[in-house]
Amino acid sequence: MYIxxxxxxxxxxxxxxxxxxxxxxxxxxxKVKDDFKIxxxxxxxxxLIKKGAKVILVSHLGxxxxxxxxxSLQPVVEHLEKLLKQLVAFVKIGRLQDWKIVGRAIEKLKNxxxxxxxxxxxxxxxxDNDPNVAKALAALADIFVSDCFAVAHRDAASITGVAxxxxxxxxxxxxxxxxxxxxxxxxxxxxxxxxLGGAKVETKxxxxxxxxxxxxxxxxxGEIANTYWWAKGSTVGQSLVGKDFKADILxxxxxxxxxxxxxxxxxxxxGGDVRxxxxxxxxxxxxxxxxxxxxPQTVELFSTYLKKAGTILWNGAMGKFEVRPxxxxxxxxxxxxxxxxxxxxxxxxxxVEILKKCGIINKINLVSTGGGAMLEFLGGKxxxxxxxxxx
Length: 391
Prior knowledge:
The longest helix has 15 residues, at 36-50.
């Protein structure tokens, strides 16, 4: 897949560069709680600053319905200033007819300086890809740079719309994620082993279907495994199950490439009365209990595939890792992943938290910023935010 990187811009000095980033990060008591996404975008920002560009950052935060001060990007701006050790002009935005004020604020930028617009979702029409919003953004800049892989599956004014009106390029983060994921799909070092867990089985089914053509093995846990056991006749209690996808799960999980758990950890939702059940025959899970982790035999089974893998793709936890002792299966496999020689890619909403807890985040070749975007990319879908850069 060919998209142009910012390194292909011949001369950026003195030019206004609009950079769509994904700073949709968790806040706590008015402070940034986790800055992983912000730090991943720093190379792009620093590259443009060093080249003398006038940089204008655009991001959303949360899902506001109009202006919501609780979702202001002010805390993010303050945190970014600390990371860059540089002032960042914070530009409030409102109705499009008032954006002359925004334009005047951008005009004050000097070469190598940086501004950030307030939460772009405060603007009506952003999420609907209103051309008027896209044109208003484009009027602020000479060049558009997308560095927001995590929301590249969204068709919004600040992601796809603005690319129609400006020369457009991929930031260093987005370019890396697309390049690495494409290479892993097209020319992986074999065996290619995929681990799929977590919730939202409806998002995992397209991946299983698509990757059955490309992967050597697909190891499944989480809601996929729960749904399979339920479909095969087990009583599953409080377990997370996708009951609308019985036929799909039975169809794809019978493929020889799909490796299912052979045992599971059953207990109370908050971790009490924990037992290991064999999954080789229908189980009878009590109504007030659930299947919340893969069992020790499954950890051993899955480990044999990880140890011989050439490439490993992982999305989603194997169980309810946020509650002890249901983290054991996920953490055991994740720690093993840090020791393998395989080329490793990890993504998903909780992946960074797990990697940090296991102390191996620096041992993974690519930690994707995208959860839904990575899933759709691996599922063979064309992401609007990527397609816009190709045109």
